[in-house]
Amino acid sequence: HEATRKLADDGILRGGSWWCSQGGWPSPNPKAHTEIFYVCRGHGCLSDADGVKHYFGPGDTVIIPKGHTGRWDVQEDIHKVWAVNDHAQIEERGTPIRVKVIHFQDYHANIGAPTGYATTPTALSETIYNVGPTKVGIWNAAPGSVTKITQTQRFWFLILKGTLVLAADDDGTVQVCEPGDSVMLPQGWSGYVHVQDEPVKKLWTQAQ
């Protein structure tokens, strides 16, 4: 059994959530887009066309490139939050095309916590995937950080920790984003990103 819910769609970049019970199935048809998902709970495995297996569990980020074929296996009921970039060309050059799994302990350990934010708030970003028109990363920011941004490309993110406030330039709209919230910023959006009273960590996807 499975259920999916689309949360945002601008025609190129889409976001949503998916739940699936235990089971397995082949995926012989080339994937039509690049998918990025964050595992909220459950365990599973994606196999490449040559049988190489990629296991994942809670807190992991998984990237399935456009053109991938292989197999899905869900060992424990899974809930994931996903984003897909519906780009035109297959960008991965390897044969076979391989799934990428970035385990929770790896990217959280690498980026660490912001330093020096008692007097000089900081924000750090680490890119964990950058192929063709799809870029994925982890953003970590300290309490009190205020960043002015103008989106030159489509942008989606999932709040993993902390509270973040978005204030749009055009109409002054303010949105409060908390853990578990996913946000789509359209190309051309501009405004301020304000981190509240605790550090914020988010998973982000940028699509051309």
Derived structural class: mainly beta
* Elements, N to C (H/E): EEEEEEEEHEEEEEEEEE
Average predicted confidence as pLDDT? 91
Q: Any idea what the shape is?
A: globular
The CATH topology of the largest domain: Jelly Rolls
Sheet with the most strands, sense and barrel status: 8 strands, antiparallel
What percent strand? over 45%
How far apart lie the N and C ends?
A: 33 Å
Integer count of domains: 2
Quickly give the CATH architecture of the largest domain: Sandwich
Question: What is the top-level CATH class of the largest domain?
Answer: Mainly Beta
Pick out the low-confidence regions. 115-120
Count all strands and give the number. 17
What is the percent of helical residues?
A: under 10%
Oligomer: single chain
Domain (S)-ureidoglycine aminohydrolase cupin: 10-81, 134-202
Protein name: (S)-ureidoglycine aminohydrolase cupin domain-containing protein
InterPro entries: RmlC-like_jellyroll, RmlC_Cupin_sf, UGlyAH_Cupin_dom
Pfam families: Cupin_3
Walk me through the structure.
This is (S)-ureidoglycine aminohydrolase cupin domain-containing protein. Residues 10-81, 134-202 form the (S)-ureidoglycine aminohydrolase cupin domain. InterPro entries: RmlC-like_jellyroll, RmlC_Cupin_sf, UGlyAH_Cupin_dom. With 208 residues, this protein is mainly beta. The chain has 2 domains: 2-106, Sandwich (Jelly Rolls); 123-207, Jelly Rolls (Sandwich). Helix content is 4%, strand content 58%. It is built from 1 helix and 17 strands. The protein has one helix at 104-111, and strands at 2-9, 13-20, 23-27, 34-48, 53-56, 61-64, 70-85, 100-102, 123-131, 134-141, 146-150, 154-161, 164-168, 174-177, 182-185, 190-195, 200-207. Strand 13 (164-168) and strand 14 (174-177) form a beta hairpin. It is globular, with a radius of gyration of 17 Å. The model is unreliable at 115-120 (pLDDT under 50).
